[in-house]
Specification:
nine-stranded mixed β-sheet, single chain, mainly beta, 125 residues, 1 helix, globular
Length: 125
């Protein structure tokens, strides 16, 4: 029962059916030069550390991201260690736009994490 439910959920997300010919999936392309940026507060939710995104106008979201694969962490224009990020810091995370369907959802291929101070503009420079 769990396998069927998981397949059904993933089928809805990926628009894939077990009755389709597998060759239809080979023609899909993913734009490789896209950058997506999301801002939020670095928080611990249910023993997971990640990005707490609020004030979106719809719902609040929480995303984790892989600490081993990040490109660089920047504060005030200078590269710092990941350990410089503290609970409550406002972060601007640059990633490829894909999110893993796990609990909690995970931002994939993070290339840059900016630690924003109160005077840092929220929009990308």
């Amino acid at each position: 029962m769990k396998k069927n439910f998981l397949f059904a959920a993933l089928s809805l997300v990926s628009n894939y059916s077990k009755y389709q010919d597998d060759n239809t999936m080979k023609g899909m392309e993913i734009e490789k030069n896209s950058e997506f940026i999301i801002s939020g507060t670095y928080s611990n939710v249910n023993n997971f550390w990640g990005l707490n995104v609020t004030g979106t106008g719809t719902e609040d979201y929480f995303y984790t991201f892989d600490m081993d694969n990040y490109g660089k962490v920047v504060r005030n224009g200078e590269e710092v260690d990941f350990e410089s990020i503290k609970a409550g810091d406002t972060l601007r995370v640059t990633y490829d736009g894909s999110v893993s369907l796990v609990y909690p959802p995970k931002l994939n291929n993070v290339t840059k994490i900016e630690i924003l101070d109160d005077d840092t503009p929220q929009e990308k420079k």
